[in-house]
Amino acid sequence: MVRALVDADVSRAAGCLVRVEAPVPSATRTYGVTPGREVGAAAWQGGGVSDEAQARRDERAAQADYHIAVQRRRDEAESVRAQVLVDGFVEQATAAGLATQELTARPWSGRGRYRTGVTGWYLRHDQALGVDTEGRYYQLVVAPVRLGRWRTVSIEPTPPPLQTGKGGRDGDSVALDVLLAMRLEWTD
């Protein structure tokens, strides 16, 4: 075994620096290796993965794919139910004569606004969510766009969730039906 000076173990004793020698394992020493078993690059070259280990990996990958597919179906079903709420809001807002305006997007930094060319209603006072006159739902916080303040920025509608702001700060998470009802009560 080789001994070396370790700077991390430097301490002050009686006003002078003292270096403490600590053992350093040699490069040839192996810990926790069964005798007769290949170590290092040689273990990877011969396809060192057993059939049992590969079967476990395949099973875990199949389980992960299954859970992703289930979550995707769950999100799609939620979006269908939420879209019914958004369509009802558009009908009620049009019937009530709520004034529409051009929706603007905000970059992640929060500084400035980008024109979008989309006309509709904001759903929150912070103007982070909006619905256009055709019932499409928009998240209006976008990635920064070069020269976005002077040009129209295109935004894509997103499937509406039943719970907006899920996973956000306290007070950011609101049920969509409650949010739409509050928006119908706004006075501009």
- Strand segment tally: 9
Pairing-aware structural class of the strands and helices?
A: alpha+beta
Gyration radius, rounded: 30 Å
Distance between the termini: 79 Å
Major β-sheet strand ordering: 6-5-4-3-7
**How many DSSP H or I helices?**
3
Unreliable segments of 5+ consecutive residues? 1-20
Fraction in helix: 25-40%
Average pLDDT rating: 77
| Morphology call | extended
Along the chain, the helix and strand elements come as EEHHEEEEEEEH
Strand content: 25-35%
Largest sheet: 5 strands, mixed
Folded structure, characterized:
The protein is α+β, with helices and mostly antiparallel strands and 188 residues long. The strands form three sheets. The chain has a five-stranded mixed sheet. A two-stranded antiparallel sheet has the order 1-2. A two-stranded antiparallel ribbon has the order 8-9. Helix 2 packs parallel to helix 3. The chain is extended. The N terminus is likely disordered.
How are the SSEs ordered, and which strands pair?
Elements: E1 2-13, E2 16-24, H1 41-45, H2 51-96, E3 101-107, E4 114-122, E5 129-132, E6 137-139, E7 141-142, E8 163-164, E9 174-175, H3 176-184
Parallel strand pairs: 3-7
Antiparallel strand pairs: 1-2, 3-4, 4-5, 5-6, 8-9
